[in-house]
Amino acid sequence: MFQIKEQPVVFDVCIIGSGAGGGMAAYQLAKAGAKVALLEAGGYFDPADPKYITQLKWPWESPRRGASNHRPFGDFDAAWGGWDIEGEPYTHKNGTEFDWFRSRMLGGRTNHWGRISLRFGPKDFKRKSIDGLGDDWPISYDDVKPYYDQVDKLIGVFGTVENMDNEPDGIFLPPPKPRLHELLLKQAGKKANVPVIPSRLSILTKPINDQRGVCFYCSQCSRSCQAYADFSSSSVLCIPAVKTGNVTLINNAMAREVLTDPVSGLATGVSYVNREKLTEHTIKAKVVVLAASAGESARLLLNSKSERHPGGLANSSGVVGKYLHDSTGASRGAFLPHLMDRKRYNEDGVGGMHVYTPWWLDNKKLDFPRGYHIEYGGGMGMPSYGFGSGIENMNGKYPTAAGLMKPAGGYGASLKEDYRRFYGAYVGMAGRGEAVPDINNYCEIDPNVVDKYGIPVLRFHYKWSDYEIKQAKHMHDTFEEIIHALGGVASGTKPGADTNYGIAAPGRIIHEVGTVRMGDDPKTSALNKFSQAHDAKNVFVVDGGSFVSQADKNPTWTILALSMRASEYIVNQVKQKNI
Amino acid sequence: MKRRDSLKALTLSSLGITALNPQVALAEQRELDTQMPPETPLKIPNGRTKDEAIRDAKLLKEKFLTPSEMATIKVLVDIIIPADEKSGSATQAGVPDFIEFIVKDMPQYQTPLRGGLKWLDLESNKRFKKIFTLCTKAQQIQIVDDIAYPEKAKPMHSQGVAFFNMMRNLTASGFYTTRIGIDDLGYVGNTPNVWEGVPADVLKQYGVSYDS
């Protein structure tokens, strides 16, 4: 018998998704006293519960030694899901590419993210006014700054005050000292005229409250921190929100559609399917907040069709799904011969880089319109599957400490010596840039395909333009300048025009935004400047979907700030009886 | 030896002679021991999802490599990573079992590995009328020397070189991800600590400082 189980209570708010945007909204609204239903498509996750902990595990605790053939970032990475989830497909149009990463767990993708916590700068909200491309945001840096400040204080971020153009400083905890290769990168940056400054990561180098511990420098934030010393939405927002007593967390709740009133057109609740038991449910709520990710929120809105909203909810403009964009990405590695036979010591440090390069050039003098930043890696890391692979391409090229040249490859005691001498002598660099939002890059509902729950799936259409491809070329030129200044040897060959200069496939950087963009004009935007749907005033979108443009920064800190701002607006609107 | 004769010899060796090899006999006994493992209810290890635990348990139960293949792998990985004054050998670190798991988990290895092991036996049969594991150490090294140095190897050995590169990489993966391998390498992290920067003597060695 087909039965839909209905929650008898009417919640003040139903939030769909528990990542950065949903976690922040749940936390803020619950603190304000609202009764919240928080739906998460995946299972419960608490990084402090031994059941879930992978942090501080050794490679041999995985039979595949942490290889990434099942979990995309390795067996120990705190992401349940990945590019492909069984029974939850997505499709592509006209042979274009888009890879979509989903984490089905409390906290979503924030459990494994890079913790790179950059504010957008004043120019990032007004790109059209600068270069004529895309659109300006309906808000400015000054509108968001107070929320960035509050996010810094609530969650914690380390960094340094630099007073750089368009790289706003925050309220910073002290940064960790650079590692050896990072000191060398700073030196090289000076030679190459590329700034290398302390990174800005949401990791606690000092205590900020009695709920969370401080970093113990294991470099494994990607496994989510059992001391709650990194920002994971699970530990820092969702679990504290549940502790207020105002949040009903429902796991394994895969939202099907937002339900609306046929007369008013307003949202009345959400229907969802239990991912494990396949039971059908509805939740009634006065306000519905979508935070399911730019892709999932667009999918939900487009699937919420009714007489009143024939093109899907919040989509009278037709822009839902359009202007999808991900950060650009290109990367290169290098070998540093002078780091061979290094002295051993623990340089794990925090999870990620201690220094980075913010965008430093003027696009008016370049052949591409938007900037990028550079992230660095390297050092004496914990070995995992793939360690030492390809030594036969290295050990014949560089003499031993005693000046002896050996033939490439080999075996035996001499080979063991080689693994030791090459250990920790590599650096990696990755550019992450801003793409120009384009109406022709979009996701839409595939007319023919449903997932295993019967929910129509997304179909992607995405192509990089010359703007992004030229930017990737510039990244590679910069990488080689830095590697040269380091006295390093670049790995592999420099990608050329035939591979679009090695630009990563769209989606691979996992910064997809823009699908439910905000704007002042309801004809060209889905949301107003408070992330509220033009077409239904009790519907909000607080994930990356609301972004007008992505900037050369990572999106998380802006998602958090905008979700906090939308939550405050919801509270005020309810108080004023507007919703 | 004519091709037909060598094939005949191989058939004979795989049916008869290998059974005399004590390593093979031991491995076969182990296989018998593991053929009917007791049914135990699924235990989900910490940090794994249920689906992952089911998949890993299933893979661990299956067997891909034959006892004679495993015997050859044991010889090879200890040639690649033998015990030395600093640390133990690949077999001491359990590399053969790692390889057995990984070829089930990453099926793309199955044909190159199985075929490469066959190549090795054919080559040793050609040279010494014996499969690789029955060769003397000197004979084994003679073959290995022909395939272990990609830039010096003869073109006629290119398939052997590709196989040995794969074995070298798998052995390194398996060895350096164990306690023995990690201690050999000198990785001293993965433990709570306080990062206070690069040690002073290292700063000095590389001519860098925190002041500039």
- Principal-axis shape of chain B: flat
- SSE class of chain B: mainly alpha
Number of β-strand runs of chain B: 0
Compute the gyration radius of chain B: what is it?
A: 22 Å
**Strand content of the residues of chain A, in percent?**
15-25%
- CATH H-tier superfamily of the domain at 1-45 and 80-118 and 231-325 and 452-463 and 513-579 in chain A: FAD/NAD(P)-binding domain
Shape of chain A: globular
Chart the SSEs and their pairings:
The complex is a heterodimer of chains A (579) and B (212).
Chain A: E1 4-16, H1 20-31, E2 36-39, E3 81-82, E4 91-92, E5 102-103, H2 127-131, H3 141-155, H4 180-192, E6 197-198, H5 233-243, E7 247-250, E8 253-260, E9 267-274, E10 280-290, H6 294-303, E11 328-335, E12 355-357, E13 372-378, H7 412-422, E14 426-433, E15 442-450, E16 456-461, H8 466-486, E17 489-490, E18 539-541, H9 556-575
Helix pairs in contact in A: 1-5, 1-9, 3-9, 4-8
Chain B: H1 3-20, H2 22-35, H3 50-61, H4 67-80, H5 95-105, H6 110-128, H7 137-147, H8 158-176, H9 179-185, H10 200-206
Helix pairs in contact in B: 2-4, 5-8, 6-8
Write a brief structural summary.
The complex is a heterodimer of chains A (579) and B (212). Chain A is an alpha/beta fold and 579 residues long.
